[in-house]
Design brief:
By secondary structure, the chain is α/β, with parallel strands linked by helices. It has 2 domains: 154 residues, Quinone Oxidoreductase, Chain A, domain 1; 124 residues, Rossmann fold. The strands form 3 sheets. Strands 3, 5, 6, 7, 8, 15 and 16 form a 7-stranded mixed β-sheet that branches. It starts with a strand and ends with a strand. This is Quinone oxidoreductase. One of its GO terms (molecular function) is quinone reductase (NADPH) activity. Keywords: NADP, Oxidoreductase.
Length: 328
Amino acid sequence: MKAVRIHAYGGPEQLRYEDIDLAPPGPGEALVRHRAIGVNFADLHNREGRYPVPSLPHVLGGEAAGVVEALGPGTEGLRVGDRVAYAAGGPKFAPGSYAEARLFPADRLIPLPDEIDDVTAAALFTKGLTAQYLIRSVFPVGPGQTILVHAAAGGVGLLLCQWAAHLGARVIGVVSTPEKAAVARANGCRHVILAGDPDIPGRIRSLTAGEGVPVVYDSVGHDTFELSLDCLKPRGLMVSFGTASGKVPPLDLFTLNRKGSLSVTSAAFAWFVQSREELRARAADVIDAVLSGVVKVHVHSQVPLAEAAEAHRALESRRTIGATVLIP
């Protein structure tokens, strides 16, 4: 079958569309024939070597939707022909979705309702589960709160902003362009600030009667971390869940004391879907949010699997709004 692999770490030019072999499913495994494949920033980090893959060469990608084509011994609750999706995260689940099919643990597959199509499903679960645990568990968002979301027009950002607004929060979004600002406003942001603004903390203070916000959700990393701390109210929480602009700089712990006894957490996907039960519960919440119209999944572009390198270039340039999906 065809797949996109890297043989060495580096830029998008390292992505090779080539033939690979796939073994039959082993105990507890399912063979999933992909219909659509999600693209996430973690894929870029895998390609660059910031998140090393287990070995080289290796297929990239951690998210897809498709159909169960075969089942190994000891699998329960699935049948050949079932529509499913998955979101792999953390060291237990190696990348491998940039392919026409793959083997995956059957108990980590998410059954899909008929109302959610394959392209939407491929764009949904990594980003949707991330948004879910960020606003339900890391910092429970509720009515009357004002929150700050960086990359508010990105894949996670759009879902997070819509969902938080539905829960009654006033959402302030930061985006990189006026075009993205319009999208953010249409998807839950009460106020939008351009990333090039020279005084984002000052803007936040002016919107919060000088107080600051109780939480900042930051997936940008290097370029925004320190200014995000300055946007927080005393005892506020900085949630760092991505490093699109590079690694977060070193932090003197007593800086948090000086700025108001702040807290910082790095909320990684894998730690919030550790068990099958937790995965299924969070996925059910995400599916309900989509089916009830609380959130709408925005797919920016559908790109042939063979052109995955172009999808990576677009994501790196920050030209994209919402999600990008590869079609095998």
